[in-house]
Amino acid sequence: MNQAPYDAIFFDMDGTLLPIEVRDFLVPYYKLLMEACAREGWGPEHFQQSVNKSIFGMMDHPASETNETAFWHMFFGELFDGADPTNEEKKRLYDFFDDFYRTDFNHAGDGVEPNPAAQRVVSMLADKGYPLYLTTMPMFPLSAIEWRMKWAGCDISLFSRVTTFDNSTWTKPHVGYYEENVALADVPANRILMVGNNTEDDLNCLQAGMDAYLITDYLINPNDFDVSTVKNGNLSEFATWAENLPPCTNTHALGWRDRADALRSDGKVPEWAR
Q: Do 83 and 166 sit in the same domain of this protein?
């Protein structure tokens, strides 16, 4: 049997497995969020401004705290204009967002047509034994990402790890985001393939020593990167390329599961990654 070239494969979601332009997602997302906000009696304009600033807060904060912690800290400060909200007010907002992402959020994907190549390549690589990480921008809770993977027609249960705002301390394009996930996979960085569509956010994995395959269907190239210098092709072409990979000879990274809070706090996770 030929030696497999990788011990794990990381996938981006938006524009990679999920065939959607980010701007085409954000418009219905904010529309639905503001409608839900108005039903609760909150001023939509101020609420949206607070959300926007808090999203940027997740991109620049101490690595000792999760993205979720950074979001709530900034969001409460913005929404309440620096005043300290009561526990009841905090719980109402927690519950509001939790309910929104479990229900209304799904309609932000109305009209999205999945690319059959997405589930084909994910299931094929899982069958070959490759540990798969869904390394999407960790700014949402798991419930939101589950919906988005349904829009993509992909089985999220095939992924060993899904990066969410509560289990990540970095965001893309920080190299720390990749180093964090490489550490959790516990395999050499040069034995991991990152599959993504953004030459800045996704290809910064190269700075962590990883390999990369650039998906070109929804290519985002803000830094005028020379695409020819890395493996590249549309998602169907990647699926064909992946068919030629031999079965994975590593099973170590399969041991990581983080979809349940109980498993994330079992003492096996580094303190900085909780």
A: no
